Amino acid sequence: MAKNGKSGKSSKKGKKAQPNPVDLAEARRLEVTAGFKLAEVDPDSTPGLSDRSVGEELFVARDAELAELQERMYAQARADVPNAPSVLVILQGMDASGKGGIVRHVFGSVDPQGLQIASFKRPTEEELAHDFLWRIRKQVPKPGFIGIFDRSHYEDVLVQRVRGMAPPEEIERRYDAIIDFERELVESGTRVVKIMLHVGRDEQAKRLLERIDRPDKHWKYNEGDIDERELWDEYAEAYQIALERTSTPEAPWWCIPANKKWYARLIVKAILLETLRGMDLEWPEASFDPEVERARLAAS
Amino acid sequence: MAKNGKSGKSSKKGKKAQPNPVDLAEARRLEVTAGFKLAEVDPDSTPGLSDRSVGEELFVARDAELAELQERMYAQARADVPNAPSVLVILQGMDASGKGGIVRHVFGSVDPQGLQIASFKRPTEEELAHDFLWRIRKQVPKPGFIGIFDRSHYEDVLVQRVRGMAPPEEIERRYDAIIDFERELVESGTRVVKIMLHVGRDEQAKRLLERIDRPDKHWKYNEGDIDERELWDEYAEAYQIALERTSTPEAPWWCIPANKKWYARLIVKAILLETLRGMDLEWPEASFDPEVERARLAAS
């Protein structure tokens, strides 16, 4: 986020530069850089935004800008602008960390026609017979789209590591394969935004209990969630390694404290807004001569 | 809609039965039945809803119900309920009749994770080499989803008829093929809602001019739009035939006056709401024993 000068991307466009509701200089510390320690991120904290109501108010006020930037990006692809850009938002986190809520509440304010949502479950037999990126590549966003991955290729170095589903040397290979894959995406015009929703162990228990107790939440509960929960420390280690090894300047990880749902949603929306602002999105040029078309229309 | 007793579907559930903001007894006349004449539908009219502000206010108040019904449907599929239902909304209309705005404004209030949007452009060579329903079948909504077709298989009896892109006997065959295809969908648990946005000739000119004039709308303009516009009467005839022949009790057409965008959006949302209300959507049963899981969670 351009504000504190740390980023290469700059939101030059003066026209729309109202302040982001979030103090991004502060929130930027959530970006994973050298020396990152997951254990030091407090899932209860709300860096850059102490007052929920002020944040939400300013947040809603930015919806129109977010929607317009998304439409500009979409318009470029529709108008066949060469190398029209796209955005890929990768969401990771333990069960009940709030991934679904992010999709619903953050992306609910942009045109659903411009979204391409992919949810990655346990791989099928066919998927397992291919390289781990095979099923992922098929779902990368089309030009002009905001792609959202609800879980992703990171499962292949998270659950697969924790559960020993692949040999250590294969897991090892995957970190570099992921970096190469994401670099390829970035080079072909996709901004890659990686979000880890960092929920605390007690907060997860509370949320799982709600899913067990409430009939309108039963469908979100899976008996396997507790098996995973029992491997909490192993997952924490796998996340620490994955984030450390794959957070690159062109495709950085953000580790977002997620015990407060409102906070996680606000921050992710702020990151999305800054990402789009940094893309210099213009309306595409007319591919026709307005004078000629006005005359044709009048005569029709 | 159940209210005036004309429909077989009834929104039995008492629990959520707040009035629909739209007078559906009146709006129901927009459903295409025997004797329908497109020429008699005034695109400027607003049947069932004279006061825009009252309608919009009540409309927003129904957003939560709409979102919940959609979530119930989605939950059924996620919980592997056998024969989980889905909804398919088919949008047709001349250029600039407001199809995109419907997707954005009507479906913008439900969870984007439960939407499956398909936009049908001019068919590719590969698509043309297959039966006209080949590309359509691939996009029918998965169980639990609301599918939206922005244009559809009806193009194959509209533009293809008007432009003579297929022989008359093939066009003729397609009406029945469409009826069979849609019946098949309905029998497998998909509610089919067909919306024709009826824009007037002058209003279309106004909207096309805006696309020619405004840089933020250029991308929506296509020089071919005027070629189609010049065949207005031929299209009106093709629509008349298509709507007349393919509006069935299980998959009826709605012909919606569309000169007033707010009106078309409100009506489509009302139809969607009534459709979901009529589906008896319950939260799926727990697939686990809450007592057991509570204990497992506590021990974890």
Q: For this structure, what is the CATH homologous superfamily of chain A?
A: P-loop containing nucleotide triphosphate hydrolases
- Quaternary: homodimer
Structurally, the number of domains of chain A stands at 1
Distance between the termini of chain A: 49 Å
Largest interface comes to: A-B, 44 and 44 residues
Average pLDDT confidence of chain A is 91
Strand percent estimate of chain A: 5-15%
H/E series of chain A: HHHEHEHHEHHEHHHEHH
Using only C-alpha atoms, the radius of gyration of chain A works out to 20 Å
Supply the CATH architecture of chain A.
3-Layer(aba) Sandwich
Strand order within the widest sheet of chain A?
Answer: 2-3-1-4-5
What does this structure look like?
Chains A, B: InterPro entries: P-loop_NTPase, PPK2-rel_1, PPK2-related. Chains A, B: GO terms for molecular function: kinase activity; phosphotransferase activity, phosphate group as acceptor. Two copies of one chain form a homodimer. With 300 residues, the first copy, chain A, is an alpha/beta fold. The first copy, chain A, has a single domain (2-278), classed as P-loop containing nucleotide triphosphate hydrolases (Rossmann fold). Helix content of chain A is 44%, strand content 11%. The first copy, chain A, has 13 helices and five strands. Chain A has a five-stranded parallel β-sheet with strand order 2-3-1-4-5, sandwiched between helices. Chain A is globular. Chain A binds chain B through residues 75-76, 78-79, 100, 103-104, 107-109, 111-113, 115, 117, 119, 150, 205, 208-209, 212-213, 215-216, 218-221, 223, 226, 229-230, 283-288, 290, 293-294, 296-297, 300, and chain B through 75-76, 78-79, 100, 103-104, 107-109, 111-113, 115, 117, 119, 150, 205, 208-209, 212-213, 215-216, 218-221, 223, 226, 229-230, 283-288, 290, 293-294, 296-297, 300.
